[in-house]
Task: structure prediction
Amino acid sequence: MRVTFCCTDTQAEPWLAGLLAALPEATVSAWMPGDPPADYAVVWAPPQRFIDEQPHLRALFNLGAGVDALLRLRLPPGLRIVRLDDAGMAVQMAEYVCHAVIRYFREFDVYEALQRERRWAARKPRRRADFTVGLLGLGVLGTRVAQALLAFEFPVIGYSRTPKTLPGVVNYHGSDGLSQLLGCSRVLVNLLPLTPQTRGVLNRDTLGRLPAGAYLINVARGAHLIEEDLLALLDSGHLAGATLDVFATEPLPAQHPFWLHPRITLTPHTAARTLRDESIAQIASKIRAIERGEPVRGMVDPLRGY
Ligand code: NAP
Ligand code: GLV
Result:
């Protein structure tokens, strides 16, 4: 069995060693143009030439949860695409989102400013019941985030394409569902995949339907957000602030107004990192399952876009 590895911006050697240790029967190598066709591919944002030169793949493993970059390529019909299914990302996303929600709810940003002024001034407690968290996307990551927020007793509501039953979470779907969720979300968290249907979903109209003083957390993809609409709604006072991990252009350009905006907290696309050991273990066990003719979780439907 031949496994090829093609990931931009990643040092290949530790991945090759890990894949070989998990699949000792395989030949594992970093892809070079002109290489012979492989049986399995492990990729992140590969070039079109890679796809064109690998016509006989039994499966292509995407080293991330989001497949938007991959689906922009011309892919052979019927190619089996498998995304990472949690692999240690869900708990990281839960940490990130809970941290951002609690920082806003408990006003830790205000205390940071007060400390700089050496001021001892406690804020009035806020009512948790007034801080409904609306989750756009109740998939692998959204579900784990919902469970973590429920443990802190925040009211949690969620939006998905198809109806979902999650204990403790009010579920909305369809276009009426989106309006209902927006109308009562004091904090809006975006965990949707980037597809033609979701591109630009965070815009002046949708964010304008949040209650005054609402807070945005975007941890999915930069292209979900119309950045100038967010700036306008922050400047008008309709939105209280935002925590952003993803941007239309990454790395975020040095002159971008988000860097120094007093009500934006940002991180460099790091909310939930791909973890090497967990990912290799998941991919190796799925390769074995495919070899045995068994189904695997995390199959991508290119028509659906995720
Ligand atoms: P997932 O398991 O595929 O879940 C996607 C969720 O979005 C599902 O609940 C799905 O509904 C819903 N959805 C899709 N299209 C929709 C639409 N048009 N309208 C309403 N709901 C829709 O994905 P995941 O693993 O949770 O990951 C979500 C995204 O997070 C990824 O695609 C990636 O872009 C992003 N991400 C970011 C980071 C980071 O570090 N910032 C790390 C990992 C992932 P159904 O349940 O009905 O299918
Ligand atoms: C990261 O953004 C991912 O999609 O895994």
Summary: The chain has two domains: 2-87+274-291, 89-266.
